[in-house]
Amino acid sequence: MADIAAALVTLEDSEGAPTMLLADTADLQRFIADRHGTQRARLGWTIDALAREHAVLQEEVERSIRSCFSDPSCATQVEEAIGVTRRYLEQGAQTSRRALERAKNRTGRRHES
User: Fold this and answer.
1) What is the C-alpha separation between 88 and 30, in angstroms, rounded?
2) How many CB atoms lie within 10 A of CB 27?
3) Of residues 17 and 70, which shows the higher confidence score?
4) Domain count, the chain
5) What is the pLDDT of residues 65-95, one digit of tens each?
6) Is the residue at 14 inside a domain?
7) Are the C-beta atoms of residues 87 and 16 closer than 8 Å to each other?
8) Does a structural domain hold residue 24?
9) Containing H/E element for 69?
10) Measured distance CA(109)–CA(113) in Å, rounded
11) How far apart are CA 104 and CA 42, in angstroms?
12) Rounded to an integer, what distance in angstroms lies between the CA atom of residue 80 and that of residue 87?
Protein backbone atom coordinates (compact mmCIF):
# COMPACT_ATOMS: atom_id res chain seq x y z
CA MET A 1 0.00 0.00 0.00
CA ALA A 2 2.94 2.33 0.55
CA ASP A 3 3.73 2.04 -3.19
CA ILE A 4 0.20 3.15 -4.08
CA ALA A 5 0.44 6.05 -1.64
CA ALA A 6 3.78 7.10 -3.17
CA ALA A 7 2.28 6.92 -6.66
CA LEU A 8 -0.66 9.08 -5.57
CA VAL A 9 1.71 11.66 -4.08
CA THR A 10 3.68 11.67 -7.35
CA LEU A 11 0.45 12.21 -9.31
CA GLU A 12 -0.59 15.04 -7.01
CA ASP A 13 2.84 16.70 -7.12
CA SER A 14 2.89 16.59 -10.92
CA GLU A 15 -0.71 17.82 -11.11
CA GLY A 16 -1.32 15.10 -13.70
CA ALA A 17 1.32 16.43 -16.08
CA PRO A 18 3.53 13.83 -17.77
CA THR A 19 6.81 13.20 -15.99
CA MET A 20 9.60 10.70 -16.54
CA LEU A 21 8.75 9.00 -13.25
CA LEU A 22 5.12 8.55 -14.28
CA ALA A 23 6.15 7.28 -17.72
CA ASP A 24 8.47 4.73 -16.13
CA THR A 25 5.75 3.73 -13.70
CA ALA A 26 3.23 3.20 -16.52
CA ASP A 27 5.73 1.06 -18.43
CA LEU A 28 6.44 -0.94 -15.31
CA GLN A 29 2.73 -1.42 -14.65
CA ARG A 30 2.17 -2.72 -18.19
CA PHE A 31 5.17 -5.05 -17.94
CA ILE A 32 4.02 -6.54 -14.62
CA ALA A 33 0.40 -6.90 -15.76
CA ASP A 34 1.50 -8.57 -19.00
CA ARG A 35 3.69 -11.05 -17.11
CA HIS A 36 0.86 -11.65 -14.65
CA GLY A 37 -1.59 -12.59 -17.40
CA THR A 38 0.96 -14.83 -19.11
CA GLN A 39 1.74 -16.62 -15.87
CA ARG A 40 -1.95 -17.13 -15.11
CA ALA A 41 -2.38 -18.66 -18.58
CA ARG A 42 0.44 -21.12 -17.86
CA LEU A 43 -1.41 -22.08 -14.68
CA GLY A 44 -4.58 -22.74 -16.67
CA TRP A 45 -6.59 -19.80 -15.39
CA THR A 46 -9.68 -18.58 -17.21
CA ILE A 47 -10.66 -15.01 -17.98
CA ASP A 48 -13.37 -15.30 -15.30
CA ALA A 49 -10.86 -16.43 -12.66
CA LEU A 50 -8.57 -13.54 -13.58
CA ALA A 51 -11.49 -11.10 -13.35
CA ARG A 52 -12.36 -12.42 -9.87
CA GLU A 53 -8.75 -12.00 -8.77
CA HIS A 54 -8.73 -8.38 -9.96
CA ALA A 55 -12.07 -7.68 -8.26
CA VAL A 56 -10.70 -8.96 -4.95
CA LEU A 57 -7.54 -6.88 -5.41
CA GLN A 58 -9.56 -3.75 -6.13
CA GLU A 59 -11.77 -4.30 -3.07
CA GLU A 60 -8.72 -4.80 -0.86
CA VAL A 61 -6.96 -1.69 -2.16
CA GLU A 62 -10.08 0.43 -1.66
CA ARG A 63 -10.55 -0.95 1.86
CA SER A 64 -6.93 -0.12 2.67
CA ILE A 65 -7.19 3.43 1.35
CA ARG A 66 -10.38 4.06 3.32
CA SER A 67 -8.85 2.63 6.50
CA CYS A 68 -5.93 5.07 6.26
CA PHE A 69 -8.22 8.11 6.34
CA SER A 70 -10.63 8.21 9.25
CA ASP A 71 -11.09 11.99 9.17
CA PRO A 72 -14.45 12.80 7.49
CA SER A 73 -12.99 16.05 6.12
CA CYS A 74 -10.77 13.92 3.84
CA ALA A 75 -13.74 12.22 2.13
CA THR A 76 -13.24 14.04 -1.18
CA GLN A 77 -9.52 13.24 -1.31
CA VAL A 78 -10.21 9.61 -0.42
CA GLU A 79 -12.73 9.28 -3.26
CA GLU A 80 -10.29 10.93 -5.67
CA ALA A 81 -7.52 8.55 -4.58
CA ILE A 82 -9.84 5.59 -5.03
CA GLY A 83 -10.80 6.85 -8.49
CA VAL A 84 -7.15 7.04 -9.53
CA THR A 85 -6.35 3.59 -8.19
CA ARG A 86 -9.44 2.14 -9.90
CA ARG A 87 -8.24 3.48 -13.25
CA TYR A 88 -4.75 2.03 -12.75
CA LEU A 89 -6.09 -1.30 -11.55
CA GLU A 90 -8.48 -1.50 -14.50
CA GLN A 91 -5.65 -0.76 -16.92
CA GLY A 92 -3.63 -3.53 -15.28
CA ALA A 93 -6.60 -5.90 -15.46
CA GLN A 94 -7.06 -5.20 -19.18
CA THR A 95 -3.36 -5.79 -19.87
CA SER A 96 -3.43 -9.03 -17.88
CA ARG A 97 -6.53 -10.22 -19.76
CA ARG A 98 -4.93 -9.52 -23.14
CA ALA A 99 -1.74 -11.34 -22.10
CA LEU A 100 -3.73 -14.34 -20.85
CA GLU A 101 -5.70 -14.48 -24.12
CA ARG A 102 -2.52 -14.18 -26.22
CA ALA A 103 -0.80 -16.93 -24.25
CA LYS A 104 -3.83 -19.23 -24.52
CA ASN A 105 -4.06 -18.55 -28.28
CA ARG A 106 -0.37 -19.39 -28.75
CA THR A 107 -0.80 -22.60 -26.77
CA GLY A 108 -3.90 -23.54 -28.78
CA ARG A 109 -2.08 -23.04 -32.09
CA ARG A 110 0.82 -25.23 -30.94
CA HIS A 111 -1.57 -28.04 -30.05
CA GLU A 112 -3.28 -27.77 -33.46
CA SER A 113 0.02 -28.19 -35.34
Assistant:
1) 10
2) 10
3) 70
4) 1
5) 888 877 788 888 888 889 988 998 999 999 9
6) no
7) no
8) yes
9) none
10) 6
11) 8
12) 11
